[in-house]
Design goal:
2 domains, Phosphoribosyl-aminoimidazole Synthetase, Chain A, domain 2, 342 residues, 10 helices, globular, 31% helix, seven-stranded mixed β-sheet, 13 strands, 60s Ribosomal Protein L30, Chain: A
């Protein structure tokens, strides 16, 4: 059903509407192994040889501080969730009139170059302009990588009975964004300098990159699915996995790690941490029999990991077991909680 002049909130499109739009896209090239689907955040293309090409694009719209770093990392995260190694990066940099300076431009360029260099990614071009109507810079990244055809991981690969593993904890990226973009608000609310600086540092510690854990997992195990929960947070990331894999899920709330700073910000700004942007967390579906070994591998490499639930049949729906033991529907929203304060 076509929607007539419907207005939309900030953030992702609703899944049902997006699914409608995607259903109208015809894949005309048989070499496309995986194209436009909810939950599949990178496209996979067959090429001669032992590898697939994997392509990804994503914008940075909330963050301005360290935007070049963000742009590389969020694209890397989605690409490595397919098991691919990132190789080539492009960016479109849109800059606001009246606010743009040479220092701003050079900082973005340097951050992109240095971040790519640290990950052995080659910057291969892009486009930069000052764009009318903007009040903040926007960077849109585009990344291409390669994966061995025998090690490709798709979000749709999760099956009923598989364990669901979460790394690091949640609300990592959101904490960094609030610390960097809302520093004045935090000061006004009485947060001290050390707290604010620790929030800012969430960008690097525990960090919004999942490169190491994704490649580590895929190199040692036959991973069923991986997903990077971004806008909409953990709950939406889990929902996208179930949509892609046609499954249900049961989550144990007591197993979800929320670090002290995100927990404090959740209370202060009335944000649900399960629905707040969470790059830096990695969701991994693996056969139950291997879940303990995977968690031990992560911990031996100084990466926190915990089994937070289990995939079930689609008919079971999306459920979360609360701390008191009651099972209720897992509520999620494509509109991220962080939009409340922007």
């Amino acid at each position: 059903m076509k929607r007539v002049n419907e207005k939309f909130a900030l953030g992702k499109l609703k899944h049902d509407y997006l699914a409608q739009l995607l259903s109208e896209i015809e894949i005309q090239d048989s070499r496309v192994i995986s194209g436009s689907k909810i939950g599949e955040d990178a496209a996979v293309i067959d090429i001669p040889g032992k590898n697939y090409l994997v392509a990804k694009t994503d914008p940075i719209t909330f963050a301005t501080d360290e935007i070049g770093y963000y742009a590389v990392i969020v694209n890397v995260n989605d690409l490595v969730c397919t098991g691919a190694k990132p190789k080539w990066f492009q960016s479109t940099i849109l800059l606001p009139p009246n606010f743009t300076t040479s220092n701003m431009i050079e900082k973005i360029f340097n951050d992109i170059h240095n971040t790519c260099k640290s990950m052995e990614i080659t910057v291969i071009g892009g486009h930069t302009e000052v764009t009318p109507g903007l009040t903040r810079p926007i960077v849109i990244g585009s990344l291409i990588g390669e994966v061995d055809k025998n090690k490709l991981v798709l979000t749709s690969g999760a099956e009923s009975g598989d364990a669901l593993i979460l790394t690091k904890g949640i609300f990592i990226e959101g904490t960094s964004i609030i610390g960097r973009e809302k520093e004045k608000d935090l000061i006004e609310k009485g947060f001290n300098h050390n707290f604010i600086e620790k929030c800012k540092d969430y960008l690097y510690n525990p960090g919004i990159s999942v490169l190491n854990e994704a490649l580590l997992a895929n190199n040692h195990f036959q991973i069923k699915a991986m997903h990077d929960p971004t806008e909409g947070g953990l709950a939406t990331g889990i929902a996208e996995m179930t949509i892609a894999s046609n499954t249900g899920v049961l989550i144990d709330e007591t197993k979800i790690k929320i670090l002290p700073e995100p927990l404090e910000l959740s209370k202060m700004f009335n944000l649900n941490p399960l629905n707040t942007i969470s790059s830096g967390s990695l969701l991994i579906a693996i056969e139950e029999d291997y879940s303990i070994e995977l968690i031990e591998l992560m911990k031996n490499n100084n990466i926190y990991a915990e089994k937070i639930g289990k995939f079930l049949s689609k008919e079971s729906g999306l459920k979360i077991k609360e701390k008191e033991g009651k099972k209720i529907p897992l509520e999620y929203s494509e509109t991220d909680e962080i939009t409340k304060i922007f």
